[in-house]
């Protein structure tokens, strides 16, 4: 049976041939027209919402398996956000699907014009390991809401969550149009060789380039949600206790710093740094106790590779010498304590690469403006943060610093607002999603202009004459008189 | 900027424009408006020269030059000038209870330094139109006009610098070596108009720097003609959309017609009559038809006609004048589906008509081909219209006319699938060259202690309630909690 053959494609050993079979199956599913109706899309989203409700415990267990993610974070950052995405899409989808009427110009009078959203067709979602549940289901929700057939490739670096998807998603969604493919580089490569109508990738800039290269072959549009070094500029004019709490929870309370929008490094003035460092130390002890390696409220480092990557950032003497708090490590359990570093050299590796872990360098300048220059000297990040009560500084920051998104006086939260586009710029990515932006990301906005057979303007037809040209120019300039003349049939042939 | 423009010089240009962009000069409404006004003035003051250049490059009839290139370019300037302030304004959006109190907005900002690569068929418009969008959005921009339209490229290179701010807007002339040198640089956006083949090259180059793109490509734009039409009007609109648009050398020109076997004879007759009315008995002598742009395209089109099984299907036209690079409007009836003329984008004055038994079958024919930039339907039947819009995917669609969708600045103009990615015109031009930055702003109030470690079941419970939109937990969080817990 067809479905049986296609089910085999799901799982390890998905090579080029199997990937082609998978895509062909999805294309048939899409061509059947079943994904176009509001009812089908709503049924899938309701199915996903039900899956999240039914399997909450399993999801949390998988996330704990993969990342030692605290249940609070699993709930707050993955489960509740995924559920909210379903609910929001269900609530708004009818409105999103409706064609949008737009004004028509005098040149096409009489006519009506509208923009019709249509699905792109068969799309591929490649997810990441750090929020392996959310970053899989969130784009899939957008793809489905927009009426596409979709293949999801969860990250193999989070195997428990990947496995969970492969097991449960097919039980809650229409398998002819929604498929999960597990695997690692070979399987991903096989998938990327196929022709997709859109590819949505979350991950690193390095692999983002591989995805875009593959997409270029078929002129496939892409959304790339990448990363960067998210700076936190801390002014002296702040409530420093609240500021440090919000920074800490955005850094270590977000998968122990392994988040694309986690604060990567802090910038502040030389004069304020001591106050800030002190407040951060106190907050960290309050949150995680005197022995943070034992705290159950911190995710572990995802695997040995990343553990080594992070510890080697500290190998440089000029860097390890700047540790002012933390630094404890437990290789066996893949744990690194929240670590603060003060005034690391700007050319050290820890200041050049995205950290993606529990190390937080603080660098200082004489003036706040110098801090902004420093931010702008680096690649554009996915998020930039500023803590200040000074409205003028806030305005300057928004005006001068370019980033995917910005948050003033808090961290990470902007991703929870479905009315804000979530995406990068420059090295941090292409495209955006969340809320309606998800729907738009997976839609083609088709312009439709409709006329009747009246409103003939003989002036537009050859043979061209100066009089005809005159009338047409008037028409293009929006002249009503020209319009009248045109439709009254001037000039007479 | 011409011969000898290599990678080093390209890098210099980009570095200069980056420096200027960093200076902030392109950010103000005043600067942007000044550039747009200058471009509008350039168009007004040089209409004769632009028309002459277009005639040089394409033998484009002055009426088409004025209508399709000059007037539309001017309109784009004026529309942007009128709307720019509104487009630049940040857009406030709703906030959720979870971030109370807060304010949220979307701020458009320029990408930075952008590259516009233009095409040869509407060489003035397709250069200036994207540049207008780039400037309106506050970018610095390099324009590379098509070398295939040499007179227009030369006109732009000589004149644009006299009107606009050269520290921010540059023209680089040249062909493949110069384009390659440019594509090696790091751009913040690339806007390309042309063929799918070169579109792939541009996208592959953009990968290196993760540069976002707009690709305005082509495709075979089908025209579906029902029997339930005003056939005279339909024929006129099809003819002017095809041959009145640079002799069919337009990305949205009707490429082929599909109609029923029963209706084909009537349609062919009506087209023949219209063609004669428009271009006379000797169309090769008509001043109202562009020529074929160059001999390489002439040969390409000639070969499409010379193919076995194709030349026999010519029912009108077919005359050629190689010396003057002219091909007469040519109709072909029932060409085989595997002929090259039915597989490649024609981009010329040849119009195949293929027939089906039932018009509903035509949707399958259209959908079996790559998605085109435009699809057209002529019918009075609203049900058929609805089905067409629902079933056929294309960049844009027009019912009962051809090409006019291009002129409406409220409609996005762009392709899908093989016909392109991204769109522009009007506000969509501004958006194409802008990054929409999300900005959420809070103050130091509205602390929710439950979000902080150490995590407890009680904290989780309160947050769940909060997220579920219950106001009580919010009140509890804001008022009661701080009173009895010091976290």
The gist of it:
Chain A is of the alpha/beta class. Chain A has helices at residues 2-9, 16-31, 38-54, 56-67, 71-97, 134-145, 159-172, 185-193, 205-217, 240-251, 273-288, 304-313, 317-320, 368-377, 391-400, 436-441, 466-476, 480-487, and strands at 100-102, 111-119, 122-126, 149-153, 178-180, 198-202, 222-225, 231-234, 265-269, 323-325, 329-330, 335-336, 339-342, 359-365, 383-387, 405-408, 429-430, 443-451.
Describe this structure as you would to a colleague.
The complex is a heterodimer of chains A (493) and B (487). With 493 residues, chain A is of the alpha/beta class. Helices cover 44% and strands 16% of the residues of chain A. Chain A has 18 helices and 18 strands. Chain A has a seven-stranded mixed sheet, sandwiched between helices. Chain A is globular. In chain B, α2 packs antiparallel against α4 and α15 runs antiparallel to α16. Helix content of chain B is 43%, strand content 17%. In chain B, the strands form four sheets. Chain B has a seven-stranded mixed sheet with strand order 10-13-14-9-8-15-16, sandwiched between helices. Chain B contains 16 helices and 18 strands. By secondary structure, chain B is of the alpha/beta class. Chains A and B meet through α5, β2, α9, α10 and α11 of A and α4, β2, α8, α9 and α13 of B.
Strand and helix map with partners:
The complex is a heterodimer of chains A (493) and B (487).
Chain A lengths: L1 H8 L6 H16 L6 H17 L1 H12 L3 H27 L2 E3 L8 E9 L2 E5 L7 H12 L3 E5 L5 H14 L5 E3 L4 H9 L4 E5 L2 H13 L4 E4 L5 E4 L5 H12 L13 E5 L3 H16 L15 H10 L3 H4 L2 E3 L3 E2 L4 E2 L2 E4 L16 E7 L2 H10 L5 E5 L3 H10 L4 E4 L20 E2 L5 H6 L1 E9 L14 H11 L3 H8 L6
Parallel strand pairs in A: 3-4, 3-6, 4-5, 6-7, 8-9, 8-15, 9-14, 13-14, 15-16
Antiparallel strand pairs in A: 1-2, 2-18, 7-17, 10-13, 11-12
Helix pairs in contact in A: 1-2, 2-8, 3-5, 3-6, 4-5, 4-7, 5-6, 10-11, 17-18
Chain B lengths: L6 H17 L5 H17 L1 H12 L3 H27 L2 E3 L8 E9 L2 E5 L7 H12 L3 E5 L5 H14 L5 E3 L4 H8 L5 E5 L2 H12 L5 E4 L5 E4 L5 H12 L13 E5 L3 H16 L15 H12 L7 E3 L3 E2 L4 E2 L2 E4 L16 E7 L2 H9 L6 E5 L3 H10 L4 E4 L20 E2 L5 H6 L1 E9 L14 H11 L3 H14 L3
Parallel strand pairs in B: 3-4, 3-6, 4-5, 6-7, 8-9, 8-15, 9-14, 13-14, 15-16
Antiparallel strand pairs in B: 1-2, 2-18, 7-17, 10-13, 11-12
Helix pairs in contact in B: 1-7, 2-4, 2-5, 3-4, 3-6, 4-5, 9-10, 15-16
């Amino acid at each position: 049976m067809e479905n049986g053959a296609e089910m085999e494609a799901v799982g390890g050993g998905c090579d080029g041939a199997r990937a082609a079979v998978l895509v062909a199956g999805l294309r048939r599913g899409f061509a059947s027209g079943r994904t176009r109706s509001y009812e089908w899309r709503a049924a899938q989203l309701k199915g996903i919402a039900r899956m999240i409700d039914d399997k909450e415990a399993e999801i949390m267990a998988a996330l704990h398996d993969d990342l030692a993610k605290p249940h609070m974070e699993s709930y707050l950052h993955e489960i509740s956000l995924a559920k909210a995405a379903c609910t929001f899409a269900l609530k708004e989808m009818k409105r999103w699907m409706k064609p949008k009427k737009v004004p028509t110009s005098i040149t096409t009078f009489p006519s009506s014009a509208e923009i019709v959203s249509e699905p792109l067709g068969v799309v591929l979602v490649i997810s990441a390991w750090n929020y392996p549940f959310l970053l899989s289901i969130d784009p899939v929700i957008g793809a489905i809401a927009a009426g596409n057939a979709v293949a999801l490739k969860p990250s193999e670096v989070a195997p428990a969550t990947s496995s969970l998807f492969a097991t449960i998603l097919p039980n809650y969604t229409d398998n002819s149009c929604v498929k999960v493919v597990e695997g690692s580089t070979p399987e991903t490569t096989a998938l990327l060789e196929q022709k997709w109508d859109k590819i949505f990738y979350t991950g690193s800039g390095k692999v983002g380039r591989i995805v875009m290269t593959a997409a270029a072959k078929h002129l496939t549009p892409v959304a790339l949600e990448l990363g960067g070094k998210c700076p936190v500029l801390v002014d002296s004019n702040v409530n420093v206790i609240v500021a440090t709490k919000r920074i800490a929870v955005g850094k270590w309370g977000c998968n122990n710093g392994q988040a694309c929008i986690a604060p990567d490094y802090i910038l502040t003035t030389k004069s304020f740094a001591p106050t800030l460092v002190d407040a951060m130390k106190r907050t960290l002890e309050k949150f995680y106790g005197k022995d943070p390696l034992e705290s159950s409220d911190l995710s572990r480092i995802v695997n040995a590779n990343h553990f080594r990557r992070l510890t080697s950032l500290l190998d440089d003497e000029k860097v390890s010498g700047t540790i002012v708090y933390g630094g404890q490590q437990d290789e066996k359990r893949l744990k690194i304590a929240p670590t603060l570093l003060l005034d690391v050299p700007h050319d050290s590796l820890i200041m050049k690469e995205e950290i993606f872990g529990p190390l937080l360098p603080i660098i200082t300048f004489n003036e706040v403006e110098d801090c902004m220059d420093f931010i702008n000297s680096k690649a554009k990040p996915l998020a930039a943060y500023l803590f200040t009560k000074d409205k003028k500084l806030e305005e300057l920051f928004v005006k001068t610093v370019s980033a995917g998104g910005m948050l003033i006086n808090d961290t990470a939260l902007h991703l929870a607002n479905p009315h804000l586009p979530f995406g990068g710029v420059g090295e941090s990515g292409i495209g955006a999603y969340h809320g309606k932006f998800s729907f738009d990301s997976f839609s083609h906005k088709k312009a439709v202009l409709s006329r009747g057979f009246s409103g003939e303007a003989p002036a537009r037809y050859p043979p061209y004459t100066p009089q005809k040209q005159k009338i047409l120019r008037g028409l293009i300039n929006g002249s009503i008189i020209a319009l009248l003349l045109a439709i009254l049939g001037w000039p007479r042939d | 900027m011409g011969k000898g423009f290599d990678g080093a010089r390209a890098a210099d240009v980009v570095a200069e424009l980056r420096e200027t962009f960093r200076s902030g000069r392109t950010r103000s409404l005043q600067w942007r408006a000044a550039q747009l006004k200058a471009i509008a003035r350039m168009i007004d003051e040089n209409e004769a020269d632009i028309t002459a250049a277009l005639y040089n490059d394409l033998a484009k009839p002055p009426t088409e030059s004025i209508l399709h290139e000059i007037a539309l370019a001017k309109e784009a300037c004026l529309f942007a000038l009128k709307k720019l302030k509104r487009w630049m304004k940040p857009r406030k959006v709703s906030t959720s209870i979870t971030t109370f109190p807060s304010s949220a907005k979307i701020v458009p900002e320029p990408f930075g330094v952008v590259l516009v690569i233009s095409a040869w068929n509407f060489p003035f418009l397709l250069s200036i139109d994207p540049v207008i969008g780039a400037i309106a959005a506050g970018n610095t921009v390099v324009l590379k006009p098509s070398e295939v339209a040499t007179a227009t490229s030369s006109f732009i290179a000589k004149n644009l610098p006299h009107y606009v701010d050269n520290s921010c807007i540059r023209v680089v002339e040249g062909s493949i070596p110069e384009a390659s040198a440019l594509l090696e640089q790091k751009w913040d956006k690339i806007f390309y108009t042309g063929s799918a083949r070169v579109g792939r090259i541009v996208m592959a180059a953009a990968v290196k720097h993760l540069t976002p793109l707009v690709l305005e490509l082509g495709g075979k734009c089908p025209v579906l003609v029902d029997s339930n039409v005003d056939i005279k009007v339909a024929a006129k609109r099809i003819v002017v959309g095809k041959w009145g648009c640079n002799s069919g050398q337009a990305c949205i020109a009707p490429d082929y017609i599909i109609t029923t076997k029963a209706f084909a004879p009537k349609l062919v007759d009506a087209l023949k009559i219209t063609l004669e009315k428009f271009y006379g008995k000797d169309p090769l002598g008509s001043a109202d038809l562009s020529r074929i742009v160059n001999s390489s395209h002439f040969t390409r089109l000639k070969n499409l006609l010379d193919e076995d099984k194709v030349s026999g299907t010519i029912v009108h036209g077919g005359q050629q004048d190689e010396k003057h690079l002219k091909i007469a409007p040519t109709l072909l009836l029932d060409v085989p589906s595997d002929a090259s003329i039915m597989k490649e984008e024609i981009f010329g004055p040849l119009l195949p008509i293929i027939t089906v038994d039932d018009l509903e079958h035509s949707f399958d024919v259209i959908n079996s081909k790559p998605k085109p930039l435009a699809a057209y339907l002529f019918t009075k039947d609203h049900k058929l219209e609805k089905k067409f819009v629902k079933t056929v995917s294309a960049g844009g669609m027009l019912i009962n006319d051809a090409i006019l969708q291009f002129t409406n600045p409220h409609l996005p103009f762009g392709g899908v699938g093989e016909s392109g990615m991204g769109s522009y015109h009007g506000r969509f031009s501004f958006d194409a060259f802008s990054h929409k930055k999300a900005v959420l702003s809070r103050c130091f109030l509205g602390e929710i202690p439950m979000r902080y470690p150490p995590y407890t079941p009680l904290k989780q419970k309160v947050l769940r309630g909060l997220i579920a939109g219950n106001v009580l937990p919010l009140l509890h969080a804001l008022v009661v909690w701080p009173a009895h817990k010091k976290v």
